[in-house]
UniProtKB/TrEMBL annotation:
Protein family according to the UniProt entry: Belongs to the short-chain dehydrogenases/reductases (SDR) family.
Entry protein name: NAD(P)-dependent dehydrogenase (Short-subunit alcohol dehydrogenase family)
InterPro entries the UniProt entry points to: KR_dom, NAD(P)-bd_dom_sf, SDR_fam
Taxonomy of the source species: Bacteria, Bacillati, Actinomycetota, Actinomycetes, Propionibacteriales
Ranges of residues in domain Ketoreductase: 9-193
Pfam families (UniProt xref): adh_short_C2
């Protein structure tokens, strides 16, 4: 198997300036893809893309997009096609799950924002990207085990990710056979978002509930995404692949 199976492909990664998205962008660039790093802040997107290019020796470009706004989703895909003449891979990674103190504290604005970024945007981007993938392509949605194992402090987020799993299967039917659509259902990962965790409490929970007894390192999601967008997964679509240390189906 080629160590650069994505040479000649153009990949768009949303939420690509940090965390899992940043790692995924670098992983795809290492495998030969030209990578578009999209984030809400255009300057940060350009900086992250430059860092990806330096680290991997690949081609990476930054573009601004708030994925919760359809007009920006439309403009993003249009710009990718205008600048690069093609789009082969879309990774819907951008997401958000701000903490709240109680269910009564969840405002309509909060609820709509979480749904917009985690579900509405991926829907719009997937529609536009699949139409632009004239030579075929692959879409990967970064979901969460919250979709199947939600906690009280993440209900709107869990609803959105459950919807994203459903979107994955539905879009696989809608976009086939030209475009394959799959999802990675991620468990806890040690990204910048984990900086606010109570690590003592997390370690105790990991011992009880996660078969691998730990959180994942960001680079441990890359292989799953690379498989789903690459040639080895040519007969895989509508799949929701969990990468969670085994937590989602834990009996506890």
């Amino acid at each position: 198997m080629s160590i650069r199976p994505l040479v000649g492909k153009v990949a768009l990664v949303t939420g690509g300036t940090r965390g899992l998205g940043r790692q995924i962008a670098a992983g795809l660039a290492t495998r030969g893809a030209t990578v578009i790093v999209a984030g809400r802040d255009g300057d940060r997107s350009v900086e992250a893309a430059a860092a990806v290019a330096r680290e991997t020796g690949g081609a990476a470009f930054g573009m601004a997009c708030h994925v919760g706004r359809w007009v920006e989703c439309d403009a993003l895909v249009e710009r990718v096609i205008a600048d690069h003449r093609r789009l082969d891979i879309l990774v819907n990674n951008a997401g958000m799950s701000p903490l709240y103190d109680s269910l009564e504290a969840v405002t309509e604005e909060y609820f709509d924002k979480v749904i917009a970024v985690n579900l509405k945007g991926p829907f719009r981007l997937s529609v536009n990207a699949s139409n632009a993938m004239v030579e075929g392509g692959a879409i990967v949605n970064i979901s969460s085990i919250a979709a199947v194992r939600p906690y009280a402090h993440q209900i709107p987020y869990a609803l959105a990710k459950a919807g994203l799993n459903t979107l994955t299967v539905a879009m696989a039917h809608a976009c086939g056979p030209k475009v394959r659509v799959n999802a990675v259902m991620a468990g806890p990962f040690l990204t910048d978002a984990s900086a606010g965790w109570d690590m003592g409490a997390f370690s105790e929970r990991a011992e009880r509930e996660i078969p691998l007894r730990r959180a994942g390192a960001p680079e441990e999601i890359v292989g799953a995404v690379a498989y789903l967008v690459g040639p080895d997964s040519g007969y895989t679509t509508g799949a929701v692949l969990k990468v969670d240390g085994g937590e989602a189906w834990s009996p506890s």
